[in-house]
Write a structure and sequence with these properties.
The chain has about 240 residues and is α/β, with parallel strands linked by helices. It contains seven helices and six strands; from the N terminus they run βαβαβααβαβαβα.
Amino acid sequence: MSTPTAETIGIHRLSFTGGEPSLHIPYLEAVVNKTREVVPDIAVGLATNGFSTLDTLKRLLAIATYVNFEIKAFDGSVHELLTGAPVEPVLRNAELIVTRHPEKIRVIRTVVIPGITDAQVLKIAEFIKDINPDIRYRLVGFRPSFILYYHPGPTKRMMEKLVRACTDLGLKNVDFSGYYPATRSARANSGANAQQLATHYLKLAGCVTEPRNCGLCTLKHRCKAMLMEPWLEKRPD
């Protein structure tokens, strides 16, 4: 019995997604090149957060048929709070792809977190529109998880409103996927700013210091706020 190959079992697309594929570019290149020896026209999709050097970006584009490019935030301060990394390389790389290789952009997307990234959406939409208003922009509804387990996602009404606002700005291809069906919490509706919300959720997850300073915390090696499953802990009053 012969060993199955990509060609014999009918594979016509490879997709690389998170974590972050760009961290493993030599591996990606090896897999894609080997596969294309058997299936020369196989499509290759990449989902990336866009944070890479120009050299890595060029290598990704050399093997990719299409790219799902995520811009988490437009403002540097918000992007750094969410990712720990500056936003400038992300915006630079997005502009490069949209300008030089628009055919490879399948979609640019942003996760909508109420009270944290929803105010970033129109800034990102304006950024995309100024480069190419035909590029597809998708808003993805945040689903409560990890440190934001107690923070509800966006309502359908919020997602629809953001799509309309992006369209009114001049983007021609905007849609959304996912929304949170429950009522938002009183805390999320209270008008608290991003810092207040973040502090609130850190306390719920078990952080015992304020302001937060992980380097000086005596519990840094057994931090409850770093649990992947904060719902397993007793919720404080």
